[in-house]
Amino acid sequence: MLDRDDCLALDHGADSSGNPVAGFAARFAAGAPGTLYFDANSIGPMPLAAPERVRQVLDQGWRIARRRSWNETDWLDQPRKLGGSLSRVLGAGAGDVLVADSTTINQHKLLHHALDLNAPRDVVVVEREVFPSNRYAAEAASALRGARLRDISCSGELGEALAAGDVAVVALSLVDYRSSTRLDLVGITELIHAHGALALWDLSHAAGAVAVSLEKAGVDFAVGCGYKYLCGGPGAPAWLYVHPRHSQSVVWPALAGWMGHSDAFAFEPGYRPAASVSRHQAGTPAVIANAAMSAAADIWCDVDPQELDERHRSLTNLLIRLVDEQCAEFGVTVASPREHAKRGGHVTLRFSDAQAEGDVSALAQALVEAGVIVSSRKPDALRLASHPLVARHTDLWDAVSKLRGLLLSEQWRDPRYRRASV
Predict the structure, then answer these.
(1) Among residues 53, 109, 121, 228, which one is catalytic?
(2) From the candidates 121, 150, 383, 392, which is the catalytic residue?
(3) Under 8 Å between Cβ of 8 and 393
(4) Is 136 among the residues known to form the active site?
(5) Most buried among 55, 89, 169, 405, by the most CB within 10 A?
């Protein structure tokens, strides 16, 4: 059985081995003293440079320069510039990623775009139990376009759903938000293409945690949020990816706006879409949010995706082992895949006692009070998401030790922990 010294040795080994990922923690602000954060699947740690970036926009840009800032700074270029900074961690070309809007809005944009590109096919395939917002977007796009929605309960049903030859686009999440099950990006994209359909992937629970390569996989479209593992801050702008084979299509973007025009300041009465991913930028950039996002984007320029992946593997494999050794006797089991290649950013635990009582949030709230920030999903799922750039192996030991203490004392059953939480 592992002890804390074993975990400390893992940290010392990582820090002294030349692994570049181990040194990135110094570029992030520390959280509250005595608090362990396992909520990177909800909101990532804050880059040290973020407050100053925002302050500069507010003071030098807004208070002093005002209108001149549009000409004297990179405000208008931020969506493309930030996209280029994220391209390495996404395995994409620098000109194929755009940072703009929200994940849901980008889902709408690309679903409509895919339906136009692949007409007269008129079926959108989506998983029945996908994150609700993704399904809502697919339902709305299908209703607005007179298209049909075809449900699958799991990726194993995809071949049958594609067999009719009428599918325009398949919209999937690479990582399940509940169990953290990761799908085969390359193999499923190949299957989709073999049946003449287009692939739209949501990487919200993968990008910034595990290695992905959108261009190598041949993915047509992808989206993801900026506030989870990518550390862009609360409500950070999302990103979208368009494979270069689609970027100069004659098909218009679903939301045609002036910033997506090939010459935005020509102010022409007719729309001409930009011959790049920029055509999907409809309106004015969110300058203040982009300033915070830029602090994170600068970090991602320097991160080697494979080193990131190895760090994530080491942390999550350790977490699973510690839970097995210290908490299994209390009815806590690992619900996420045990094989790293099949697991996304977080590790999900199941707690049988919580299922019997109908809600795991009491245990989650007890952990939060003990200084371990986690999330839960009813009725019995506890989610722990280490950020591979900042988390230490000893953090995992300390968190699981506190979890074991709560289970042993049954303190989590106290009625004060039974309150609603996000």
Answers:
(1) 228
(2) 383
(3) yes
(4) no
(5) 169
What does the alpha-carbon distance between residue 237 and residue 105 come to, in Å, rounded to a whole number? 11
Q: Which of 24, 28, 37, 227 is catalytic?
A: 227
Residue 383: active-site member: yes
Burial of 269 (0-12, 13-18, 19+ CB in 10 A): exposed
Task: Count Cβ atoms below 10 Å from residue 323 Cβ, excluding itself.
Answer: 22
Task: Examine residue 22 and state whether it is found in any structural domain, yes or no.
Answer: yes
Claim to verify: residue 296 and residue 315 sit in the same structural domain: no
State the SS3 of 93-158: CCCCEEECCCHHHHHHHHHHHHHHHCCCCCEEEEECCCCHHHHHHHHHHHHHHCCEEEEECCHHHH
Q: Catalytic residue, from 81, 131, 342, 418: name it.
A: 131
Domain harbouring 390, CATH code: 3.90.1150.10
- Residue 64 burial (10 A CB sphere; 0-12, 13-18, 19+): exposed
Smallest CA-to-CA distance from 147 within 163, 172, 128, 166 is with 166
- The catalytic residue among 39, 96, 101, 202 is 202
Active site residue 202: yes
User: Would you say 256 and 269 are in contact if contact means Cβ atoms under 8 Å apart?
Assistant: no
Strand partners, 381: 350, 377
pLDDT tens-digit series, residues 57-92 = 999 999 999 999 999 999 999 999 999 999 999 999
Sheet containing 347-351: order of strands: 332-334, 347-351, 381-384, 375-377
Pairing verdict, β 97-99 and 375-377: unpaired
CB 293 within 8 A of CB 278: no
Nearest-CA neighbor of 254 among 210, 296, 200? 200
Task: Establish whether 216 is a catalytic residue.
Answer: no
DSSP 8-class letter at 232? -
- Domain-embedded: residue 85: yes
Assessment of whether the complete model's pTM goes beyond 0.85 = yes
Residues ≥6 apart with Cβ < 8 Å to 266: none
pLDDT digit string, tens, across residues 23-49:
899 999 999 999 999 999 999 999 999
Decide if 342 is catalytic: no
Three-state DSSP state, 217? helix
Instruction: Give me the number of domains the chain comprises.
Output: 2
